[in-house]
Design brief:
Order of helices and strands: HHEHEHHEHEHHHH
Helix content: 55-70%
Number of helices: 10
Distance between the termini: 17 Å
Largest sheet: 4 strands, antiparallel
Structural class: alpha+beta
Strand content: 5-15%
Number of domains: 2
Shape: elongated
Radius of gyration: 29 Å
Number of strands: 4
């Protein structure tokens, strides 16, 4: 196989179809950026739910040595008190399931969210130890609208410092996260479909422009792969440029929005990090390459009849 010919045809093809190639690159770039944003929003929603709980959960915080509520007159929650609380959770009809969270787990979650660049604030955060945190029970409900029974019953037990129900506050956050996530994914699906059509048009025009060369190659017995390879490489170039631009957009979002604006100024929840950003870029790279190479293989078999 003469690679010189393949690369020569690659350059000729890109020059002949420069406007179509640019259109494919732009469509791939926009669609993959939206897919990446949808993946990041999904990761952020998972982190928020892990930290705050879902709309189907309430959280019971137990007494520690610093608690001053009426149920905590004896200080730290005792073993018998925890057994009584757990029995109520096991038997109550509104409870679907529950899980305990230790002080160390609570501390690790808190540290993942409360990080500050201010030295004074950071010294305050560093002075807090796992022993200062509260043990808790995370309760999943059978019905999000039926929770007052378990909430009122548990709130009156000895050893319970407070019961947190943030569903009214968190529901709008989860709602808009889901709207943005599925909106980005929905628009991306339409754009991906448009990209597939554009790849098909590009292949059709390129095959028409090279019909004489392709006919000669068929006559001399050129293999199918040899004829298809320049088209596949054109599609791969368009895919790599589109993926690179989309990856740059995701990286810019992480750098300027997440690390530049949200993380330094807001500690309401743990935010996505560079690991999530790289995970998103990896997925859009796979999608971008498949988005162009698979339609190209199909279209070349159709239009080139190899």
């Amino acid at each position: 196989m003469q690679l010189t010919y393949v690369f020569s045809e690659l350059g000729n093809g890109l020059r002949r179809n420069v406007s179509m190639t640019i259109a494919v690159v732009v469509t791939i770039f926009v669609s993959l950026t939206l897919v990446g944003m949808g993946l990041l929003l999904n990761a952020q929603a998972d982190k928020a739910e892990s930290y705050w709980g879902s709309k189907l959960q309430i959280t019971v915080f137990l007494c520690n040595q610093n608690s001053t509520t009426a149920n905590c007159v004896d200080g730290e929650v005792t073993g018998p008190q925890k057994e009584a609380i757990e029995k109520v959770l096991d038997d109550h009809p509104e409870v679907a399931s529950w899980r305990p969270q230790s002080k160390q787990e609570a501390y690790d979650k808190w540290r993942s969210a409360y990080v500050s660049e201010d030295e004074t604030e950071q010294r305050v955060y560093d002075s807090i130890r796992p022993s200062d945190m509260q043990e808790s029970y995370w309760i999943s409900l059978k019905n999000p609208e039926q929770f007052m029974g378990i909430k009122s019953q548990v709130a009156g037990l000895e050893g319970v410092n407070s019961v947190r129900d943030l569903r009214e506050v968190l529901s709008p956050i989860y709602f808009w996260m889901n709207v943005m996530k599925w909106g980005a994914v929905g628009i991306a699906v339409f754009l991906i479909f448009a990209a597939v059509l554009q790849v098909g048009n590009t292949i059709r025009l390129a095959a028409f422009a090279r019909r004489r060369e392709i006919g000669i190659m068929r006559l001399v017995g050129a293999s199918s792969l040899y004829i298809q390879l320049p088209f596949l490489m054109e599609a791969l170039v368009a895919a790599l440029v589109g993926v690179a631009l989309a990856g740059a957009a995701i990286a810019a979002f992480m750098y300027f929005v997440i690390y530049g604006m949200l993380r330094p100024t807001s500690n309401i929840m743990p935010y996505i990090d560079w690991g999530d950003g790289l995970w998103s870029i990896g997925w859009i790279a796979v999608i971008g390459v498949a988005l162009t190479l698979l339609p190209t293989l199909v279209m070349t078999r159709k239009y080139l009849k190899v």
